[in-house]
UniProtKB/TrEMBL annotation:
CDD domains linked to this entry: PBP2_Lpqw
PANTHER family registered for this protein in UniProt: MONOACYL PHOSPHATIDYLINOSITOL TETRAMANNOSIDE-BINDING PROTEIN LPQW-RELATED (PTHR30290:SF65), PERIPLASMIC BINDING COMPONENT OF ABC TRANSPORTER (PTHR30290)
Boundaries of every Solute-binding protein family domain copy: 117-484
Protein known as: Solute-binding protein family 5 domain-containing protein
Matching Pfam families: SBP_bac_5
Transmembrane regions: none
Superkingdom field: Bacteria
Length: 584
């Protein structure tokens, strides 16, 4: 079932953000491929690599990381790897495809959610009457209530819980609808959102929590214990096309078809195995040996691309992925408190050269990202950056900005602020990558041209979270990967009180704009407001986007209906029910 493009982009509007070190992972040469199966993905991303499937077959899929549990409700487990390992059985409302169209999960829902009322906001869900948890138990109102409590962020409902995002914080009640297959979610006074249709309303099964002795509905401590149970326990249930047959947490999961799958897509595979690998190199080696059948890793290097280009037995494609890189400034730094200096710093950075020396080695047509919330090819995209000169490497403009703000240069060309202090600060980035080092060197060179002394200060990749969460940087280069919604993302990125506002920018006008966006019901108006917010963020000059980070999909040539999806953190696994072995 397919709806028209809504102007927004993902399942779960309050999905937690996932951070990455940023940058590609090696230098070298390579470019996107048009291999058999993927040659039409650039022009027809939704249906490329389509074909008739043979009856039966087994597929082994590699992921380039591990997972620590089975419950992506929890902040510690809301990672791309948990989202991928749970993809074959999780009760999603739906997925967004590669063109931004919402595709309902008809294995659980009979039709798209309906807005019954704006004040208060009430949303009606219609269940597929055949939908079950894979154990003969139908999906019902208790399951909606369980998800509400799990994602509420409320100690009164889930004591000590740490949801990845409190997406149900605004819910006031969950009640039976006018018919047995209908559930109505009512939000509290003053709550509204243009992204109401995509809220996650189901997660773990309430009846299994009860069977395990958790009085989750009446005891918030028991509710937390139930969430911990689902984290530690390999699931015996499934609402999706596959169920887990065997698994070892963090290592592998073996899936077989779910006989109770109520979706319209017929499953043809006999078995699907998803295995964890410690590197993309290992995945490519296994692919070449024929021991696995495909992967869509979260990073790709130019050296990887060069290897794939010589492997005749592997089909692959390179394209912008769900992550985007950016350079942030700490607005609490003694010098960078000044918006004029921040603006000049960004105007001096030459992103075209930076991309040509790094990302373009992986994806030959990699382009500057010109909007913080919308991709360059999005219907909602507006270019707010070019006119400001930020990212242009325009030294004359940067110097003019500084001169107008009262900055001066000494005889050695060193920049001094209006109080006569020499301007110097640090630049932080994750160690261990030639490309990230190249970016750092280029930024230092650019800022040196306007007289700024920049200390390059790398940190271990494992220290990314602690470094940015403590704002232990003056400048920092890293990336976000997240579901492509924009209302919740904008608030998480830039609200003054957001824990994810690592640059610590405090802008009351921006906060007011974010609050207005959060309460806007009309999707078209929300897009306009979101673009106005991007313009304000650019005016504040504390986040400079670089590029939508290139990623790859690689498969054996006999796989059909397998393709990448930038709009889903599940990547290629988003449509796993459709996967198959190509019919002769």
């Amino acid at each position: 079932m397919r709806a028209g493009r809504p102007g927004i982009g993902a399942v779960g509007t309050a999905a937690a953000l996932v951070m990455v070190a940023g940058g590609t992972t090696a230098c070298g040469s390579g470019e996107g491929a048009g291999d058999p199966g993927f040659q039409h993905c650039a022009t027809d991303p939704v249906t490329c690599n389509s074909g008739e499937r043979a009856d039966g077959g087994e597929v082994t899929w590699g992921i380039d990381g591990s997972w620590t549990g089975w419950n992506p409700n929890l902040s510690a487990e809301y990672t791309v790897y948990t989202l991928q390992i749970t993809a074959p059985y999780w009760p999603w409302v739906g997925q967004f495809d590669q063109e931004g169209d919402f595709v309902l999960n008809d294995g659980v829902f009979a039709k798209e959610p309906t807005l019954l009322s704006e004040h208060p906001m009430q949303v009606e869900y219609t269940l597929n009457p055949d939908a079950t948890w894979g154990d003969g138990t139908g999906i019902g109102i208790d399951d909606f209530v369980y998800n509400w409590y799990a994602r509420s962020g409320s100690e009164a409902r889930c004591q000590g819980c740490t949801p990845a995002a409190a997406s149900a914080a605004g819910v006031e009640s969950v009640e039976a609808g006018a018919a047995a297959d209908k559930i109505v979610v009512t939000y509290g006074p003053g709550y509204s959102s243009s992204e109401w249709k995509y809220e996650p309303v189901l997660s773990n099964p309430a009846h299994i929590a009860e069977e395990q002795g958790f009085d989750w509905e009446h005891d918030p401590a028991a509710m937390a214990a139930a969430e911990a149970y689902f984290s530690a326990t390999v699931p015996t249930w499934s609402t999706g096309p596959f169920k887990v047959d065997d698994a070892a947490t963090g290592e592998y999961a073996v899936y077989t078809p779910n006989d109770e799958w109520a979706g319209s897509t017929e499953v043809t595979l006999d078995k699907l195995t998803v295995k964890s690998f410690d590197s993309v190199d290992s995945i490519i080696t296994e692919l070449r040996q024929g021991t696995i059948d495909g992967a869509s890793p979260n990073g790709i290097s130019a050296e990887n691309v060069a290897t794939l280009a010589t492997a005749q037995e592997i089909a692959f494609d390179i394209a912008p992925g769900p992550g985007w890189g950016h350079i942030d400034l700490n607005t609490q730094n003694e010098f960078l408190q000044d918006p004029a200096l921040r603006t000049a710093v960004f105007q001096a950075i030459d992103l075209e050269e930076l991309i040509s020396r790094t990302y373009a080695n992986v994806q030959s047509d990699a382009a500057r990202k010109l909007n913080h919330l919308f991709r360059n090819d999005s219907a909602q995209f507006t270019d707010h950056l070019t006119a400001t000169g930020q990212g242009a490497g325009d030294m004359e403009l940067a110097r003019s900005t500084l001169e107008q703000a009262g900055y001066t240069w000494d005889g050695d060309g060193r920049l001094h602020d209006p109080d006569g202090e020499r301007v110097a600060f640090n630049y932080r980035y994750a160690d261990g990558s030639d490309d990230r080092q190249t970016m750092a060197d280029l930024v230092a060179f650019n800022l040196g041209d306007i007289g700024i002394e920049l200390e390059l200060k790398p940190f271990a990749v494992a220290d990314l979270g602690p470094t940015i969460s403590s704002s232990d940087f003056d400048m920092v280069n890293y990336g976000w990967t997240s579901a492509p919604v924009f209302v919740s993302r904008a608030d998480q990125y830039w609200a003054s009180d957001s824990a994810s506002n690592y640059g610590r920018n405090a802008d009351p006008e921006l906060d007011a704009m974010l609050a207005a966006l959060a309460s806007e019901v009309d999707p078209d108006k929300a897009v306009e407001q979101a673009n106005a917010i991007v313009a304000r963020v650019i005016e504040d000059a504390y986040v400079l986007p670089t590029v939508d980070t290139p990623v790859a999909i690689m498969t054996a040539e006999d796989l059909v209906n397998v393709r990448d999806n930038w709009a889903s953190q599940q990547r290629a696994l988003y449509n796993v029910a459709e996967w198959g072995i190509r019919a002769d």
